[in-house]
Amino acid sequence: MRYKRIGVIGAFLIATVCLLSGLMYYFNQDICPVGTFLCPNTTFCLPQRNWCDQDPHCPGGYDEEDCYDYHGVLDWFHNDRDSEAVRESVCACQGYTEIPQNLSSQTTLITMYDSSIKRVPMGAFAKYSEIRILYLDSTEIQEIEKGAFVNLTKLFWLMLDNNQISELVSGHFTGLTSLETLKANKNRITVADFSDLEGSNALSFINLNENRLTSKNLKLPHLPALLEIYLDENDFVSIPDTLFVGCPALKSLYVLTSMQKNKIKTIEEDTFQNLEQLEELNLAFNEITTVPLNVFQPLKNLTRLQLGYNRLHNLPMPVLNPLTELLSLDLEGINLDVLKKNAFDVFTKLDFVYFKKFHYCATYAPKAKRCRPTSDGVSSLSHLLDKTLLRAAVWVVSYVTCVGNVLVLWGRFTAKDENRVLTIIIRNLAVSDMLMGIYLFIIAVADMIFRDNYKQVASSWMSSWSCTFVGVLAMISLEVSVLILSFMSVERYMLIVAPLKGHRTMTPQTASASMIIIWIIGITLALVPVIHWRSSTRFYGVNGMCFPLHIDDPYLIGWEYSAFIFLGLNLTGLITIGYVYAGMFVSIWKTRHACSLSVGDSEFALRFFLIVLTDAACWAPIIILKIRAMMKYPIPADLHAWVVVFILPVNSAVNPLLYTFTTPKFRERLSDGWFGKVRNCVIRKPSAEDSQTSTSMGNKNIMLSLSNGNQCKNKIPPILGFNNEKTHSEKHSHIQ
């Protein structure tokens, strides 16, 4: 009793100590672990991947609120104007060919639409001194004369969008002392000089998107109130340090470009020297290759930076470190493989971040609540294989591939009376195909190991030698299979189409030597990129499946080698196999048609068709996708995984059926073995007499056909892998 009481007291004390230790550990930690964020008014910590995924998780659906990136300056759009004054006299003018002069002198807003006004003459609006807002967009304006807007001292909103204006020069904006917003995008402007507005304390917004401006032809004088300027899709190639020197209040600068327009290559280190108030900077979609180390040093108030889709091969963190106020950062399309873990934790206010690869989120910015992308189409932040169907399919395909090729090896190694040349070739083909099954099996196991925690290991897995080894296995399997099938096809073609041109039947020694050479070539092809990119192991580690198809990013590291493999070797193999099988089929069809030999024609045709079909089904889709990707056609992000799981292993899974399971000898041995015993337990076993009668009748038909065929001028030689694998009964009938 005493010991029981001591045990109870001891257990209680130990439990109390453990509980207190746990509570101390819990309360000394942050509210939520790194990579998770607290749902408001709860103690629930939600992982980064679940924020803004269109599926509410927090009570009240808070995690799906504020999912749009509004960071930036839009104040000009929300300015509260004297709306009553604007509404006093409004004119919506339609169908005019010139500026009307018969409107009320108290008109405060003029909108011209469905009009064709080629020219705005001097003093065109002089009598309308009360105008506040003037819409002249989409009116086919080609020329604006100097002094066209004279006397419009109260005008604060001028729209010239979507016209054919070629220049805006000194004298065009004379008298616009109250102008706050100027929009002249989608014109043909090659020169823009705003000298008339120098010193203006009103002008705060300029939009010159989609014109033909260059840094030399844009003159921005001292504009102390200018907050935002848009220069998207122009012809800039550089940003000199003098361009914005007169705009100290600038908060938003957009030099965003389409792929066909602005091609900014260089930024001078002092370009943003006087822009301490800049809050938003967009330099995306240019051709910037390097960023000066101190270029962002003056931008202490920058909250949003967009650098995505430039030609930056790397972006050193010291370039970004001065931007401590960042709320939104866009680095899409930029490789960041050499950064340190948690590199973006220095940006404590970062709310939105956009990367090229999804695993950068967990590796570099686990504290950013909203990080994109959340998947690369293959993997997600949680799983190596994101979709349930893919997880199941990779197990099934790997099982079918491995079991099928193991049966082939069993059949070829246990048979004693097989054609030795054919056996050597099929054994090697089965081994290479089985490597594909092993590759898929390893991927399936890795997915199971990393389940629900993939974001923590994604970067290390893809850059590891384990991933490289797995990718090498798949590449060896693919290329050796391509070479063996091409080799078999050419050998058959020489035997069938040109049997009398001195081509000798292959010996086992020649077959063995050929297979050794093929394996050496296949292994070399798989290892060359490993050696060449040995410092990064990134050729195979472009995604979680460790196979470099380069269809989601066609110009990623090693794209030239990938194109050589798939568009060079594999395409050549596919064309070779298709050509030689077509030639063989035509030769056999002609010979048998002349001999009136119909036995087995349908089987030959079907097997020829299936061989070419499976080769095409495996390689043609990949080749087509590669070509489309390199031509910059959009390829769905999740297509890579489906190709690797369902298309790439087609040959490896089907080859046993085509080259072994459908041969008479294998079917006979399978029927005589354990499979036949199982089958006979289910259905009635035929008597020996029935079997002998059936075999004899079949042999008589074959011998009769062959004897008729001897009358033909051309004889059909034995076909490697087809009619030279005779059953035991057929051989016995020939001996007799």
Automatic annotation (TrEMBL):
Keywords: Cell membrane, Disulfide bond, G-protein coupled receptor, Glycoprotein, Leucine-rich repeat, Membrane, Receptor, Repeat, Transducer, Transmembrane, Transmembrane helix
Coiled coil: none
Disulfide bond positions: 52-67
Extent of the signal sequence: none
The organism's place on the tree of life at top rank: Eukaryota
Alphabetized SUPFAM superfamilies for the sequence: Family A G protein-coupled receptor-like, L domain-like, LDL receptor-like module
One GO cellular component, as annotated: plasma membrane
Subcellular location: Cell membrane
GO BP, one annotated term: hormone-mediated signaling pathway
G-protein coupled receptors family 1 profile domain: residues covered: 404-659
Record carries keyword Ligase: no
Gene3D superfamilies: Low-density Lipoprotein Receptor, Rhodopsin 7-helix transmembrane proteins, Ribonuclease Inhibitor
Single GO term (MF): G protein-coupled peptide receptor activity
Transmembrane segments: 7-27, 392-413, 425-449, 469-490, 511-533, 561-583, 604-627, 639-661
Membrane-related topology note: Multi-pass membrane protein
Pfam families xref list: 7tm_1, LRR_8
Chief location bin: membrane
InterPro entries membership: GPCR_Rhodpsn, GPCR_Rhodpsn_7TM, LDL_receptor-like_sf, LDrepeatLR_classA_rpt, Leu-rich_rpt, Leu-rich_rpt_typical-subtyp, LRR_dom_sf, Relaxin_rcpt
Family per similarity comment: Belongs to the G-protein coupled receptor 1 family.
Protein name: Relaxin receptor 1
